[in-house]
Amino acid sequence: MTTTPAVRILAIGGSTRPQSSSELALNVAAMAAQAAGAEVISITGRALMFPIYDTETTHRDPLALDFVEKVRTAHGILIASPGYHGGISGMMKNALDYIEDLREHDPSYLDGRSVGCISVAYGWQATVSTLHQLRQVVHALRGWPTPLGGTVNASVTKFDADGSCQDTGAAEQLAIIGRQVVEFAQMRQASTDATAPSANSGS
Ligand SMILES: Cc1cc2nc3c(=O)[nH]c(=O)nc-3n(C[C@H](O)[C@H](O)[C@H](O)COP(=O)(O)O)c2cc1C
After folding, report:
1. Tell me, what CATH number does 91's domain have?
2. Which domain holds residue 20?
3. Which of 16, 22, 85, 156 to mutate to test the pocket of ligand 1 (most atoms within 8 A of CB)?
4. With a 6 A CB cut-off, is 83 part of the ligand 1 pocket?
5. Would residue 45 count as lying in a domain?
6. Whose CA is nearest to atom 9 of ligand 1?
7. Pocket of ligand 1, candidates 84, 93, 156, 158: which has the most ligand atoms within 8 Å of its Cβ, to mutate?
């Protein structure tokens, strides 16, 4: 009997701030994805601080190269951005711009990948506008945003030092997003396996 390998989910996000609330929100979704059977890899905070994406050179920072490779090999993605001035933070948008380097790959960009989008800001207005931007960027990259998106208002929802979230409504919202990314990735994996030519079909 063959066993299907676990789907790989890449969780990216956070800010440069210690105890970044967007990183903590990302972790809640990532833990739910892991509990749903996925292998989860995280790249967060300063590990996402790449040079500005440069179209005029093929030279890439090693951190950025590693990021692009992990995006390429992921079955699903979780993204959490802080809301800065009503939109995606510069660091997160710059990291997403690097997915341009997957343009010529097959599948290109985020094609076929489920993407859970989470925004964290200090007021509802910026959480909503930032989530909207994240989903638009994912669409532009040919990804499949999950049905539920996450909006965490950090003025209302607090995370404990250990990363747990006492706001059960917010925590459950984040967990659902983690599970939805895994569910879609598993469905894609099952359908790809079903349509792939059998190894011993002789063709
Ligand atoms: C440069 C900057 C701009 C911000 N702009 C907004 C904003 O427009 N609306 C808002 O509600 N919060 C804004 N905030 C607050 C952050 O969204 C909020 O603190 C969020 O929790 C930051 O995420 P972090 O904890 O991961 O650093 C801003 C914070 C910074 C540093």
Report:
1. 3.40.50.360
2. 8-195
3. 85
4. yes
5. yes
6. 126
7. 84
User: Measured between alpha carbons, how far is 194 from 26 in angstroms, rounded to an integer?
Assistant: 32
Residues 5-41 have pLDDT tens digits of 899 999 999 999 999 999 999 999 999 999 999 999 9
Residue nearest ligand 1's atom 22 by CA: 82
Which pLDDT does position 200 carry in this prediction?
A: 46
Residue 146's nearest CA partner among 76, 95, 74, 71 is 76
Using one digit for the tens of pLDDT, what is the confidence trace for 42-59? 999 999 999 999 999 999
User: Is the pTM higher than 0.90?
Assistant: yes
Tell me how many domains the chain contains.
1
pLDDT above 60 for 143: yes
Gap between the Cα atoms of 163 and 130, Å rounded: 22
Using alpha carbons, list the distances in angstroms from residue 194 to 8, 38, 47, 66, 166.
19, 20, 37, 30, 42
Q: Which atom of ligand 1 is the closest one to the Cα of 125?
A: 11
> In this structure, is residue 61 part of a structural domain?
yes
| In a domain? residue 182 | yes
Ligand 1 midpoint to CA 34 (Å): 28
Q: Retrieve residue 198's tokens.
A: 């059998």
Does a structural domain hold residue 201?
no
